[in-house]
Design goal:
Elements: E1 11-21, H1 29-49, E2 58-62, E3 66-72, H2 76-94, E4 103-113, H3 120-129, H4 132-144, E5 153-158, H5 159-169, E6 179-186, E7 189-196, H6 202-209, E8 233-235, E9 241-243
Parallel strand pairs: 4-5
Antiparallel strand pairs: 1-3, 1-4, 2-3, 5-7, 6-7, 8-9
Protein name: Class 3 adenylate cyclase
Organism: Amycolatopsis sulphurea
InterPro entries: Nucleotide_cyclase
Length: 246
């Protein structure tokens, strides 16, 4: 019989990052592999720039059009700052390519067990990526910047990472004043998050991208025509009375 001890459940808090390619589902099949390879190369360069390394990442997972990586929690600020350099690399790349590439990025802080394959922290990460307000912001910039020269990558930050690192320590390349709060609501996850768009105004973009509801209008009230009762008499201008019954 196996003795169950607390050591079997030891977990470490990790700073996790998810990156996926915006609009990959609309790309032709012959472009998918090259796009994924190129995105991984650009992400690796961005990680190197902030002092991280793809090879040093833990719990590396490949998604259909992206990747998830984990680093020790003391590197959480660097994980978040990766989006700044990834955005720059993507915008520079888009100036010389016919088909632009952009990325959605999510960053989170949560526990991960060393040898487990199932990580709730990664599940939260994917819910953040799919947050409706974040998607609206991304679509807004894809529409007004079709060449991808102004918008290369957007970041959504979990509440735990925001409260533990971003807000109190004023991370230089993800300044709190340039972030805006959103509500994340999915069938199995509800919570707060913050979005950041390098070099762009996230709060203004969110306001512009949200569907505008039309003001409610009252239906016109049609007054029913009043019929005159039999024998009704109306005074005439000349002083005589006119009766509807005569």
């Amino acid at each position: 019989m196996t003795t169950l001890t607390a050591s079997r459940y030891n977990a470490r808090t990790m700073a996790v990052l998810a990156v996926d390619i915006i609009g990959s589902s609309q790309a032709s099949d012959d472009l998918l592999d090259p796009m994924k390879t190129e995105m991984e190369s650009l992400l690796s360069q961005a990680l190197d720039t902030v002092g991280l390394s793809w090879d040093a990442a833990a719990h590396v997972r490949e998604t259909g059009d992206g990747s998830m990586l984990a680093y020790p929690d003391h590197q959480a600020g660097q994980v978040a700052e990766t989006v700044f350099y990834l955005d720059h690399l993507l915008r520079s790349r888009n100036r010389y390519h016919r088909v632009p590439m952009r990325a959605r990025v999510a960053a989170h802080l949560g526990p991960m067990a060393e040898h487990h394959r199932y990580h709730r922290t990664y599940i939260t990460l994917t819910r953040l990526l799919n947050a409706a307000p974040f998607g609206e912001v991304v679509r807004h910039w894809c529409e007004i910047d079709p060449d991808g020269e102004r918008f290369g990558a957007g970041l959504v930050i979990s509440k735990s990472l925001w409260q533990a690192v971003i807000e109190p320590f004023n991370v230089a390349l993800v300044p709190p004043a340039r972030c805006t709060r959103i509500e994340v609501v999915t069938p199995d996850f509800t919570g707060e998050a913050w979005i950041h768009l390098p070099g762009l105004d996230a709060e203004d973009t969110l306001a512009r991208s949200r569907p505008r509801s039309r003001p409610a209008t009252r239906p016109a009230v049609v007054e029913p025509a009043q019929s005159e009762p039999p024998g009704f008499a109306e005074p005439a201008r000349n002083g005589t009375r006119l009766s509807s019954g005569t």
